[in-house]
Amino acid sequence: MVKKGYVAVGLGATLVAAALFWRVARRPPLPPPPPPVASVTPTTRPPPQAAEMIYKGAFSPGWEDWGWGPHDLPKKGPARIVFSGFGGIVLHHADLPSRFGGFSFRYKPPGDWPEFLTVSIKRTGSPASAFPQVSVEPQQVVTLPDGWREVFIPWDVLNPGNLPLDRITIAARSSVSSEPVLLDEIMLSKPDASVVAGTPTRDVDLAVLCSGTSQPISPLIYGTTGGDLESGHTAQRIGGNPTTRLNWDAGNLWNSGSDWFFENGTSGGSVWEWIDGNVKAGLQTALTVPMIGWVSKDATSVGFPTSKIAGQRKHDPNRPEAGDGFRADGSKVAPGPPSETSVAAPPEVIGRWIRTLREKDQARGQRSVQMYLLDNEPSLWSSTHRDVHPEAVGYDELLDRTIRYGTEIRKADPDGLIAGPTEWGWTGYLYSGKDREAGTALQPDRRAHGGVPLIPWYLQRLAEYEKSKGVRVLDVLDVHFYPAGDGVFGPNARTDAEGAARRLRATRALWDPDYLDESWIKDTIRLIPRLKQWVADNYPGRLVSLGEWNFGADGDISGGLATAEALGRFGQQGLDAAFFYSGPHAGSPVFWAFRAYRNFDGKGGHFLDVSLPTKETERVSLFASRDEARTHIVTVIVNKDPTFAVMVNLKLDNCGESSARRVFSYGSGSAALSEEPPSEQGTRIKLAPYSIAVVDLTIVRPDAKH
Fold first, then answer.
1. CATH number of this structure's domain 201-212+614-704, picked from the four choices 3.40.50.2300, 1.20.1250.20, 2.60.40.1180, 3.40.50.1000
2. Residue 438, SS3 per DSSP
3. pTM for the full predicted model
4. Which of 191, 399, 546, 591 gives 101 a disulfide partner, CB atoms 3.0 to 4.6 angstroms apart?
């Protein structure tokens, strides 16, 4: 499984941004003179309609300037670009889906210049040969008043492979003077209406079963790590690998571990500021508490200094003193003492920190942290933090640290929720770090503990501890989950047809007892029911949380659909908390998936508090909610079919009659979740291929009729 290597915390702050990733220059280098360009067949077109406005007097949210040539972007008004020297501008966005009608922009040269521009799109990880460089020809240009020209390039010319993109370049293909050119109204347009109208459609019967067993929906399932506030998320997790060694006394000292050369560093803010920010934003907080026993002592030390350990395989190119802890042959270098980078953080220190936190709460008259997470993925410490913990964590050490640190947390905050073991994934649920290093086929540590999988054993021992000592050190069973199939999650997440389909199927691992995971796991995960059953069998009364989760391809429509599917299943399956990692970022498909549940109309409209059972089909999911008064139903429908639109006949079974409805939709060509025009079709709703619809219904109950 590909594991992420960074952490986002509090209000979008990133603990390791400066040290881990911002060292890599994001802006593209000056390109060489352009290669031969593709020709364009003359076309006729109606005026373009924006699906994604990029720049109109200013950049739209989510878009940014990656341009290389001299240019000026005023706070309001057209951009001024110098195209001399084959200059241009690069417009960047997180991954965007591929279904647009074309690319359009307006420009005003300083004189009667001949056409001189080229346009191309790119995506990180895709070969340059996947996208042609298209010459702007006169037949693509409409002359507007006052010297402006409007360019439109059809999408199949610009993106013949219909691939996702993350940047658009407008550049000169010939030598021009250094006088600036005005640029404005840059957009990705909606597909031609005739193309949309020709989409094949099938009928689907879905039903909301109001007489079935309902259950409350926890608002904490809409948590994030570093999510944009406009997503409507309800809670923020402060966590990730660097928080294992976050020094609260210093406020913002941490160590990046194996994510980036075991370097100490500082973040853009302190843990106290992140917590305060969450309170001001009205968010609940889940806070990672160091349990490894060591936290960073300064902002400069490194775990494997090359001045003391020569011959290491790699070092930080911007900080040569920081080695990677491996010899040239790939063997591990033995670390020095933990004091090389860190100071001791025994349970008593953690207790003091939390007492300070509660004193701040008392002064403000409001609780700030609702849940304390017992560190981060301890079975991986011997890899992620092996400079201070080179030995793998076993069953007994995990239990011992949970009891010792959990006891101090309980003393400092008797009413706070304590969550653990915060393990990373499938192997971490079943085996210890010692088993992982020895090989799970041998599983020596598990065999030494009766052959019982790690989490059930952990729950049993903590239940016994509470019974014998009268101290409860665990309230929440918390684990992390990422799909393990190749190309589903991670930096190389696939967005081709098969990759997208696998991503959507992978969501079935959350709940479906018949789904055999399409990865090295090759088992029926049924994650939420499994975790709840482990709790019921071994330590009844514990809540269940996913401290990290993500189904990949955040910038692709398949990632948005998978996110909408997961959020619906969380409520349907009775999960208590979940924290998307990391984001969602403004304008991305996963952002609009969150908005479908948390603020679909931009005015606070949201999925309601009680989950209702539904009847759905294989490729169309239906999630339903109602209010306590039974006069309001909100449903989210996910069309997972990439080819067919669906005409949904939505039956309300024993719910009453709908007296009013609103429908909001988002699909692969959408710029945002938007309301559809009023319709008289009652509970018949049409969804485009690969799209989400929110149906907001006002209900007249049968017993309210006169």
1. 2.60.40.1180
2. helix
3. 0.78
4. 191
